UniProtKB/TrEMBL annotation:
Subunit structure and binding partners: Homodimer.
Every Tetrahydrofolate dehydrogenase/cyclohydrolase catalytic domain range: 5-119
EC number of this enzyme: 1.5.1.5, 3.5.4.9
Pathway(s) where this gene product acts: One-carbon metabolism; tetrahydrofolate interconversion
PANTHER family to which the protein is assigned, alphabetical: C-1-TETRAHYDROFOLATE SYNTHASE, CYTOPLASMIC, C-1-TETRAHYDROFOLATE SYNTHASE, CYTOPLASMIC-RELATED
Keyword terms: Amino-acid biosynthesis, Histidine biosynthesis, Hydrolase, Methionine biosynthesis, Multifunctional enzyme, NADP, One-carbon metabolism, Oxidoreductase, Purine biosynthesis
Taxonomic source organism: Tepidanaerobacter syntrophicus
Function according to Swiss-Prot or TrEMBL: Catalyzes the oxidation of 5,10-methylenetetrahydrofolate to 5,10-methenyltetrahydrofolate and then the hydrolysis of 5,10-methenyltetrahydrofolate to 10-formyltetrahydrofolate.
Domain Tetrahydrofolate dehydrogenase/cyclohydrolase NAD(P)-binding: 139-281
Name this polypeptide is given: Bifunctional protein FolD
Reactions catalysed: (6R)-5,10-methenyltetrahydrofolate + H2O = (6R)-10-formyltetrahydrofolate + H(+); (6R)-5,10-methylene-5,6,7,8-tetrahydrofolate + NADP(+) = (6R)-5,10-methenyltetrahydrofolate + NADPH
GO cellular component: a single term: cytosol
Entry annotated with the keyword GTP-binding: no
SUPFAM superfamilies: Aminoacid dehydrogenase-like, N-terminal domain, NAD(P)-binding Rossmann-fold domains
Length: 285
């Protein structure tokens, strides 16, 4: 049976470090600040915000939520981002996606200050992820995957690592981050032929497709490390990942559960990025 890679344990260890860091900053009279911006009323965005605010507040970060109507104009949206860019109390800005139809993500992403862009929307941060520079911000979810691998001492160097999914939020940046750590990376997507043939090559297999239980045991090689990024709901409405946990667990060497895996680490990584952003902005090393 696979060892369970416990996201809650990873998040708790990271939280302890961050609380100590925030205490040190507080003694210098500085408190990190985060603003989450949400336009419209998508329940998934709202539930992300609730858990991010809860987590970041518990670490000592001042959290603000800016809720905008679904029909907010592009001009008003840009003005809000401008104000946050220059607000000295705000060190990190996170814009919930998908944006409503009247707002162009392509415009917003250039507007958000790269130094406050804690979830890697701005192409400057994207390019830093691609080039392996460590002074930018990667998106929180792939960064959470890396936190889990590091916490459990799972080395990726030289390993055949297969990522299912090529979105800008998860699959693509994650592949680049693994490449920067010298993994041999294959990216699979909806047009990949013989998916199982590709995924079986993975010593490390990471699923970020958003398809409930699509990774079955015939797609996983014996002893593989399996990381499940997916957040889905099965026929009975129960949360599940992209991996069919019950069938894959007996053949994998280690595996993240859903819930309690990658998703449990993401908001703590957001807090980490806000603290890093503050230090970057204030020149604290
Ligand atoms: P997305 O829909 O933007 O991208 C999915 C990707 O998977 C696409 O690149 C697509 O080509 C690929 N894909 C889809 N079906 C496939 C199939 N049958 N075979 C091969 N490839 C396939 O989704 P996303 O935003 O990248 O999110 C992926 C999953 O991760 C979702 O379940 C989402 O809820 C979850 N997620 C989790 C967290 C977290 O904190 N754990 C954060 C963000 C997203």
């Amino acid at each position: 049976m696979a060892k369970i890679l416990d996201g809650k344990e990873v998040a708790a260890a990271l939280k302890d470090e961050l609380v100590a860091e925030v205490d040190r900053l507080r003694k210098q009279g500085i408190t990190p600040g985060l603003c989450l911006v949400m336009a419209g009323s998508r329940p998934d965005s709202q539930s992300y915000i609730n858990s991010a605010v809860k987590r970041c507040s518990s670490i000592g970060i001042d959290c603000r939520v800016k809720k905008l109507p679904e029909d907010v104009t592009q001009g008003d949206f840009l003005k809000i981002i401008d104000d946050l860019n220059t607000d000295p109390k705000i060190n990190g800005i996170m814009v919930m996606r998908p944006l409503p139809q009247y707002i162009s993500e392509n415009t917003i992403k250039y507007k958000i200050s790269p130094e406050k862009d804690v979830d890697c929307l701005n192409p400057i941060n994207v390019s830093k992820v691609i080039s392996g520079d460590d002074d930018g911000f990667a998106p929180c979810t792939p960064a959470a995957v890396i936190e889990i691998l590091d916490y459990y001492g799972i080395k990726v160097e030289g390993k055949r690592t297969v990522v299912i999914g090529r979105s800008m939020v998860v699959g693509r940046p994650l592949a680049m981050m693994l490449l920067a750590r010298n993994a041999t990376v294959t990216i699979c997507h909806t047009r990949t032929r013989n998916l199982a043939e590709e995924t079986k090559k993975g010593e490390i297999l990471i699923a970020a497709a958003g398809k409930a239980k699509m990774v079955t045991k015939d797609m996983v090689s014996n002893g593989a490390v399996v990381i499940d990024v997916g957040i889905n709901f099965d026929e009975s409405g129960k949360m599940c990942g992209d991996v069919d946990f019950d069938s894959v667990c007996p053949i994998a060497s280690s595996i993240t559960p859903v819930p309690g895996g990658v998703g449990a680490v993401t908001s703590t990584v957001l807090a980490k990025h806000v603290i890093e952003a503050l230090k970057l902005q204030k020149g604290i090393y």
